[in-house]
Task: inverse folding
């Protein structure tokens, strides 16, 4: 049987580091090949502060940050949930725009895990609307089983050793953010 | 106690995907912040073919590929081992050159795992010679315990689901390479 090409659903999950950075590594690779890329960050808010956002601006990669920087610890849950749902609406527009070969939904699993968005609804929507050759990378902890079932490629990033817990080392600019 | 800053030794290991791409994501982030970066690929050979190499060329990131594309399956082990050792010599020069904030040793663990290079000698050399604020990212399967002990941050990439085994899907340019 001939091998087929298709747009992949890739999920990077687990408690370890590297979920988002592995997505950004694919962004770098895809950019190197001239693919059209859109990144939507669902939790992070402070646009322009992060190394990867600075890089994206320089490279002409579309990058949206729709979060308010909070999750379940938000003081205004209505606001946080509304932002998440707005982020998903933006993502749906980008996915169906026909402009992108690769769409990254960074920290999207939290919307599903906290049930701000129904996982089966999200999957049904993707099944019906995602362009067949478009790749989507979804990152975040606690990817629901339904999403794992739907995805083509799932990797768990597992923490073996972490310096900020075991040693008194602060997060390093350019490496951690 | 005040938190300290230091150059980190980061290891991405395990059988799953995302070890190298997470390193390349940090490269993108670091580049976004104007850090000086060198990537040395110990196994891959075909320079210019990969999406990430094309990207690095456009971004002015120093990128060396010292491998011949083979590992333990090489038909000429002397050549393969000599290339690996030459790669390590190049890495040592880059690390001590004073030019780089971040050095990526991609697929370096194989040199240690196959014992082409002694892990304790490599660690001793790094302890004595690595500039204190320089970050090093080492990728590859089967990171030796000595290296895990020496590293600040270690993540295992664990395969949960892989499309090329479970489905008849070919590797996709821009995503996989």
Result:
């Amino acid at each position: 049987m001939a091998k087929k090409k298709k747009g992949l659903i890739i999920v990077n999950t687990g408690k370890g580091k590297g979920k988002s950075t592995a997505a950004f590594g694919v962004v770098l690779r895809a950019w190197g090949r001239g693919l059209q890329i859109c990144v939507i960050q669902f939790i992070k808010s402070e646009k322009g502060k992060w190394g990867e956002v600075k890089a994206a601006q320089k490279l002409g990669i579309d990058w949206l940050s729709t979060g308010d920087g909070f999750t379940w610890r938000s003081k205004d849950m209505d606001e946080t949930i509304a932002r998440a749902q707005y982020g998903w609406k933006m993502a749906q527009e980008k996915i169906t725009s026909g402009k992108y070969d690769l769409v990254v939904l960074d920290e999207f699993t939290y919307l599903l895990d906290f049930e701000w968005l129904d996982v089966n609804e999200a999957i049904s929507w993707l099944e019906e609307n995602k362009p067949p050759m478009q790749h989507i990378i979804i990152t975040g902890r606690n990817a629901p089983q339904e999403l794992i079932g739907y995805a083509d490629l799932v990797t768990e990033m597992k923490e073996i050793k972490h310096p900020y817990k075991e040693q008194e080392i602060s997060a390093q600019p350019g490496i951690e953010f």
